[in-house]
Amino acid sequence: MIDTIRSLGRWGLGVFERLGRGHLLLLEILRGVPELFLRFSLVIQQLSSVGVHSVLIILISGLFVGMVLGLQGYNTLVDFGAEESLGVLVALSLVRELGPVVSALLFAGRAGSALTAEIGLMKSTEQLSGMEMMAVDPVRRVLAPRFLAGFISMPLLAAIFSAVGIFGGFLVGHGLLGVDDGAFWSQMQAKTDWYEDVLNGVIKSIVFGFVVTWIALFEGYDATPTSEGVGRATTRTVVHSAFAILGLDFVLTALMFGDV
Amino acid sequence: MRQSKSTEITVGMFVAAGLVALFVLAMKVSNFTDFTDETGYQVVAEFENIGGLKVRSPVTMAGVRVGRVAAIDLSPTTYNAHVTLNLYGSFDTIPTDTAASIYTAGLLGEQYIGLEAGAEEEFLKDGDVIELTQPALVLEQVIGQFLFSKAEGE
Amino acid sequence: MPLVKIRDLHFYRGNRAIFDGVNIDIHRGKITAIMGPSGTGKTTLLRLIGGQLHPDKGTIEVDGQNVHTLSHSELYELRKRMGMLFQSGALLTDINVFDNVAFPIREHTKLPETMVRDLVLMKLQSVGLRCARNLMASELSGGMARRVALARAVTLDPMMIMYDEPFTGQDPISMGTLVNLIHRMNDAMGLTSVIVSHDVAETAEIADYIYLLSGGKVIEKGSPVQLKRSSSQWVQQFMQGLPDGPVPFHYPGTDFSDDLLNGEVSA
Ligand SMILES: Nc1ncnc2c1ncn2[C@@H]1O[C@H](COP(=O)(O)OP(=O)(O)O)[C@@H](O)[C@H]1O
Ligand SMILES: [Mg+2]
After folding, report:
1. Domain spanning C4-262 has what CATH number?
2. Domain coordinates of chain A in residue numbers?
3. Are A212 and A82 a contacting pair, CB within 8 Å?
4. ipTM score for this prediction
5. With bands split at pLDDT 50, 70 and 90, how would you rate the model's confidence at C240?
6. Domain ranges of chain B
7. Helices H, strands E: what count in chain A?
8. Global pTM?
């Protein structure tokens, strides 16, 4: 009994310690961000591996999610004779929820895990230590550009996801199911609010990008420097990111759309 | 460490694609364009009850949108809702004795303000007040009244 | 005044004392060797000097500055003047040999690319790998990687350089060259060198002064000649590589026969 409580306590302390280290690391990373604007080529390089390499999966997933929304939405709406509202349904679902959330989940799996593995391996092969001894701060030189790149990439990826998804919904709705295209677009425009819906969705994706990149970098930087340790850190990145995205999505949704 | 040109180009294309997507979401998907032509003039109307009316709800005349709700306050003296309407500048020939009512689009749809033109020769201008108003139909009240009158009738 | 002054150093890993009251002086312009069986904490000592680890007690001064009371930026300024050659080489794996050697120059100076190129080729030439400059770090053998790392460690002409096991994994020819190179750089560039090693013969050949570490303490110190003539059994065993003697080969713990007889089967 005592042992259980003790191990629970130890676990709790461990969690708090990690949280503390995570926040300290974040502070250091943020301190390194301003000087990046003088060496933006470092960020561009990371935008390539973090952002560009995630585009394909975002495009394909976005298109299919939009097409499925079109099909499912149509089947439901047609019972009420409201299939003209398909555009609204597709656009609102994507812009408010699915765009930011699904693209963040994909981003965590595609770019976040890669970041963790890369940083973890750099740690285990003493590359980070080596930099420190060359008087190059790895947090500023390695982590900060990756952080900024993730932060910039996420809202762009989410926007691409939503836009492609709406197009997919339109393809199915208009092309396959024959919903009037004028009604599709005009109803969508009338009911989708630039501020309430689009901007809030963008804010969500910015928050998700921040958190996922932070988790990924911290897990890599804090990984046990062995192949097993890096493997576990990579898994943790994906799992913790997913929790963080879904939990934060609830909080943000409640804050943004809650008090209507 | 020098990066190749192709990296820069692909990153440029990526950022451009993201911005285009944002632009599409703003212009094509949402009502962002409404904000640009919102120069106009403001008039005020007092309602006994506005139901579910919100800021930015549409204001229409014969079904055509002529403006939006700009602000909603509670009048401290009359305890009525004090609604500021923003009417588009192109609709500058709305008579001063126009009536404003709050309607619901469909049974459960969103609420909007409908204007019915009066007969005056003078037109509404910035800062004017619409005197004739009709409050929102609150479904619970309507049902309540209906049941009450039924009960009385028996 | 010595360049590095270590006083009463204590350092623990868990409950195990890696250093238990160590005093070491490293003099300017000399080659000082730190020797001892593997696992005694030689690498740990270099990390303590470099400010990557913090001592539990005691002080380490480099060039008159206490390494562990410096601010972040002061520490990084100091590190610009220290080179360190890691046991693994610690080369950056996403760039090639040339860029690795150029890395500290590009990070810390604003020299034009043509000068960077000249400098890098010069350093690579001295370790015999000028023509391997387009290989990626993963395409190098351990010995080659260490030589590239050496070239990188000296690109900024530091005041001191710490070598962690520079000789392991080198074939006899490059071993000879390397010994020579370390010696030459020390004399020509006025470097102060710290060599961590357990290769007795090579180290004794070039070291001016040797510290022998074991069990968290300095067991013996002196010039190579003094050590070879030492009357201590321990020193004799280590310097001659004899299997039997006072140096424990085993990681400290319980007796082997006890372990066999009373061992509970775990897990
Ligand atoms: N990260 C670590 N955590 C716990 N113990 C460590 C760690 N690194 C090294 N040690 C222990 O410290 C001792 C000294 O290690 P090290 O300095 O690498 O020895 P060496 O003299 O062979 O270079 C070893 O016995 C090792 O078990
Ligand atoms: Mg070692």
Report:
1. 3.40.50.300
2. 2-257
3. no
4. 0.85
5. confident
6. 1-30, 37-144
7. 12, 0
8. 0.81
